[in-house]
UniProtKB/TrEMBL annotation:
SUPFAM superfamilies: S-adenosyl-L-methionine-dependent methyltransferases (SSF53335). This is SAM-dependent methyltransferase. One of its GO terms (molecular function) is methyltransferase activity. Residues 40-133 form the Methyltransferase type domain. Keywords: Methyltransferase, Transferase. It is an enzyme of class 2 (transferase). InterPro entries: Methyltransf_12 (IPR013217), SAM-dependent_MTases_sf (IPR029063). It comes from the Bacteria. The keyword Methyltransferase applies. GO terms for biological process: methylation. Its EC number is 2.1.1.-. The keyword Cell membrane does not apply. It holds the Pfam family Methyltransf_12.
Length: 253
């Protein structure tokens, strides 16, 4: 038994995605026109983007769905602190089982909750009410990865894991969306995200690096950093698609 606390989780990140405050502000401004009455966030994590959307759409109510109860608890605490607890529900469970559509539906970094990218876009399309909007944030290849780069990324990484950005937009169109805005995370957003992701464990190691359990923590951060800096940095991109749904079903396509 040890009384050493474990490393904190995600306390250095505002979002669990390569997303700057500046881009989040622009996304939110775009997504709340037309004003949604209902906002749904699949794989919301601690719900920071959902809360910012509800702050910008004061008449709206929101739901965040995620399988990680501890992240949802952080979201609920933030909603209480910001006076929005009566307008947002955090629901623990798999996104794929959610059936209630909304005017604005968000899915950032959580396409795996539905299967592959095309499955996620189809699920997202079904979840958006006519005339509504969606935000889809997901990976794409900035350029074709080399076999050497793939071998240094995540286990079993394959060139088939992602489309390129044009392919990502094509999948959104095939799912029945019109792409209203296409953008991609910048190198700075990636550096901030990956550094913030590793920072909980790096700071813990500064304090507890001599503990027996530090060996595993050190190995996990070094493995992740190598995957990032020697594997996918500059190759794996992350796109943000602001998507529109026609008001009338007959206008689709
Ligand atoms: C990369 S994080 C993105 C979180 C959030 N969208 C954000 O941008 O901060 C992916 C999230 O998906 C959640 N997740 C994974 N599988 C899921 C599932 N089947 N249903 C709902 N959420 C899921 C994880 O718990 C995690 O919070």
């Amino acid at each position: 038994m040890t009384d050493t606390p474990p490393p904190s989780r995600y306390v250095w990140l505002d979002f669990n995605a390569p997303l700057s405050d500046a881009r989040a502000r622009r996304l939110v401004e775009r997504l709340v026109h037309p004003a949604p009455a209902t906002v749904l966030d699949f794989g919301c994590g601690w719900g920071e983007l959902l809360l910012r959307l509800l702050e910008a759409a004061p008449g709206a109510v929101g739901t965040g769905v995620d399988t990680d109860g501890s992240l949802l608890a952080r979201g609920h605490a933030a909603a209480v602190a910001r006076g929005m607890a009566d307008r947002v529900s955090f629901v623990e469970g798999p996104a794929a089982t959610w059936r209630e559509p909304a005017d604005l539906v968000v899915c950032v970094g959580a396409s795996h909750a539905f299967g592959d990218t095309a499955d996620a876009l189809r699920a997202l399309r079904r979840a958006v009410r006519p005339g509504g909007r969606a935000l889809f944030g997901d990976g794409f290849w900035e350029r074709p990865p080399t076999p050497g780069e793939l071998s240094r990324m995540w286990p079993k990484a394959s060139a088939d894991d992602y489309p390129d950005l044009a392919g990502l937009v094509d999948l959104a169109v095939a799912a029945g969306f019109r792409p209203l805005w296409v953008e991609a995370a910048s190198p700075d957003e990636w550096h901030d995200f990956e550094s913030g992701f590793l920072a909980d464990r790096e700071h813990w190691l500064l304090e507890h690096g001599d503990r027996p359990e530090a060996e595993q923590v050190r190995a996990s951060v070094e493995r992740h950093r190598a995957r990032w800096l020697r594997g996918y940095r500059g190759v794996w991109g992350f796109g943000y698609l602001t998507l529109g749904v026609p008001s009338a079903p007959s206008a689709a396509g």
